[in-house]
Amino acid sequence: MSVEAQNQRIQDIVLHAYQTRTPLKIHGGNSKNFYGRQINGQLLDVRHHGGIIHYEPTELVITAAAGTPLKLIENALAEHNQMLAFEPPHFGDRATLGGAIASGLSGPRRPYAGAARDFVLGTKLINGKGEQLHFGGEVMKNVAGYDLSRLLTGSLGTLGILLEVSLKVLPRPAFETTLINKLPADQALAKMLNYGRKPLPLSASCHDGQYLYTRLSGTKQAIKVAMQSIQGDELNDGEQFWYKLREQQLAFFDSEQPLWRLSVPANTTKLNINGETFIDWGGAQRWIKSDMDAETIRQQAITAQGHATLFRHGDNNEEYFQPLSGKLKQLHLNLKLAFDPNCILNPTRMYSDF
Amino acid sequence: MVAKIHKVNKRRSPFVRQLRRILPRASVLFDSEDTRPYECDGLSAYRELPWVVALPDTIEQVQAIMRLCHAEQIPVIARGAGTGLSGGALPQDGSLLLSLAKFKQIIELDPVARTARVQPGVRNLAISEAVKQHGLYYAPDPSSQIACTIGGNVAENAGGVHCLKYGLTVHNIQQLIIITMDGERVTIGGGGLDSPGYDLLALLTGSEGLLGIIVEVTVKLLPLPERAQVILAAFDDIEKAGNAVADIIAHGIIPAGLEMMDRYAIQAAEAFVHAGYPEDAEAILLCELDGINEEVSEQILIVHSLLQKSGATELRTAKDNTERELMWKGRKAAFPAIGRLSPDYYCMDGTIPRKQLATVLKRINEWSKEYNLPVANVFHAGDGNLHPLILYDANKPGELERTEEFGGKILELCIEVGGTISGEHGVGIEKIDQMCVQFQALELKQFHAVKHAFDPESLLNPGKAVPTLHRCAELGAMHVHHGQLPHPELERF
Ligand SMILES: Cc1cc2nc3c(=O)[nH]c(=O)nc-3n(C[C@H](O)[C@H](O)[C@H](O)COP(=O)(O)OP(=O)(O)OC[C@H]3O[C@@H](n4cnc5c(N)ncnc54)[C@H](O)[C@@H]3O)c2cc1C
Questions:
Q1: Judging by DSSP bridges, how do beta strands A307-312 and A276-280 pair with one another?
Q2: Check: complex ipTM more than 0.95
Q3: Are A124 and A224 part of one and the same domain?
Q4: Fewest Cβ atoms closer than 10 Å to its Cβ: which of A199, A300, A303, B158?
Q5: Nearest CA in chain B to A160
Q6: Helix or strand or coil: residue B398?
Q7: d(C-alpha A72, C-alpha A75), whole Å
Q8: Using the beta-carbon criterion (under 8 Å), do B446 and A351 form an inter-chain contact?
Q9: Which domain covers residue A273, as residue numbers?
């Protein structure tokens, strides 16, 4: 089937669902099924291998069908020595581009290079009325109309079904090195923050409970010089380490305990949460394995001016993301209805009330 | 029409009285001599005396004003420094012009987390100046940075010469506090790098004052690079300069800034600031590399040889910071420099895929001859954002109209080659008609639905940024694009 025909097929299904008010459960590669609340609905498989539609290395832009496997895209970019700088987690072989953008997740490079939403330039989508819409485009700067492509990023399919996505891509750094240094968490965090204030070619930093890991990316000379300001031993297979962190394959993640993701200001020191902690994103993302009740953990996150997500091994019938309240919640409801007036797109996947 | 004006005037005195219960007398302006400074923004071809201007200085005042306007159904137009180039802050009869100019405080600076919490009226450059002592800076640097406010930057998603490497406003902010049309205070974004729910931070950025009043911004700060070095390359052909840009990027180098100027712009800038630009060149490229000292040295050599290979007729590396700043000064002063050569100029702001540069410039030059209006081009070459400046004289009958027509053609050409009508200056009132060309009815309807989610009565900056379907349909009747009627699905009026 051509891309157009596949898009038409999805559009027909959505239109019908809109008319009959049938909730749809959208799935791509199903690799991120765990992410969000558990929902019911008529299954809508949006995996179609339209593949790469347009890739222009010197313009730093790629456009691909949302159903394209993420791996295929990354391989194509690698051939031209380029990459998706937000390092999207795959969480399985079947991860698709659409799933990566709909979940909006980003890997270890995020604090230094930007998040998924930062690289989204344009989207083609189908809203909850079965209308095909096109926002943004393939150029780096575009302020015509509201930035709905970025709004859709991370909306978990609740505002629209992505058909095509255009992304900004970046050259791969010429060299990368990872340094490790055995340090307790508080000292490691202080170092991460300190490095972040210096003009160093940082591209990731984390602490696994025992070691501080710092990744440097850039020209050979830059790394050589930067290594003088960062103590530590060179890690042999740094690439593998960051890959495993991104994919949550490190020993830390090998557990059935509820895994919380806290997004907090990088310099947060006081979090009264019992549980083993893995600090990523230079301090701005904390993975915590904890059996404490959700209420307490969420309150801690709020006190730190952040938010908490019950990322894995929680009860997916409960709230998954930090609940919203007041006018902010009202705006969310209004926006949901602005895109999906009959609430048929992944209803309640993000929050129990829409 | 007369009846309408009369009605609007009759409402003013009671409205002013109510405003004065919220604000001190000096903060409510309505006499034409007081309101005159607010009659236009940077797009001075459009002027309208404000009906009433309010100058609050606390968030509570803004809330009270919004509640009042909501109750009285009076539209509100936010204004920062008024440097906008698309008429976004253009006043309207019967509307309140809400100036955020008194919100000038940097509330909190956290050098460890590298953030600054600032009020919306803080000038862009003032942030970098305030954090310099900590070795930090705020990256987006619009050429208007001495004057424009951070609130205006967020509302327009402003860019600057360094956004190729460091991103636009949207990439460099973390939290906003907005006041909605009904006077409610909402925190958008958060203390960390992301927030739960939809990405309203991205939605608000570039929303041109149509969704909420921004009353606080938390910006991200970056460490000042150890060294920045700029190379100036001259070319005898603009296409060669364009290819050089592609070569640098294909080589895996993302310069901190990569700017191009054409002959006319070079000469104007040279005459104005004496930056030492080669005046006989058809185009110059300014390529800035920054980072660790050694890294910059390495990359300078690479870029130097790439530029040489692409046929640069002259290559110059700034010897020291003074020379570097001088080279940039010419670029940053390009608009006023051109302003000196002509009674008026009209600044366009399209983005195109870079490879289309030669085609687009060729067409612009042809039109320039056809319309008999000179054009100077400055170009954020790294990210394809083109600023053609059309020189004209508003006092010559019909010249403004011809300029606008010419400008409209340029914007439509940008769309035709796969680009957009605005890279960073916004749609405002200026490009409202071209929005009908760039978007189809369904997309426009979706925009209106989003607007409705925030401001159901359409009281925030009405008539700007997103055209009504009626307007597009009416326009479509006069304006046939490539033999194709836009919005054929709509009835004609
Ligand atoms: C010489 C010159 C050079 C320029 N160079 C650049 C450049 O390099 N890059 C670039 O991006 N732009 C540039 N600009 C355009 C302009 O400076 C930017 O758009 C800037 O962001 C506008 O800020 P301002 O404070 O002047 O906003 P204003 O002009 O006052 O307002 C702009 C828009 O924002 C809205 N607004 C303002 N404040 C708020 C608020 N607090 N809450 C909600 N809405 C608000 C207004 O309603 C209006 O729609 C240039 C302008 C000039 C005159």
A1: unpaired
A2: yes
A3: no
A4: A303
A5: B446
A6: coil
A7: 5
A8: no
A9: 257-312
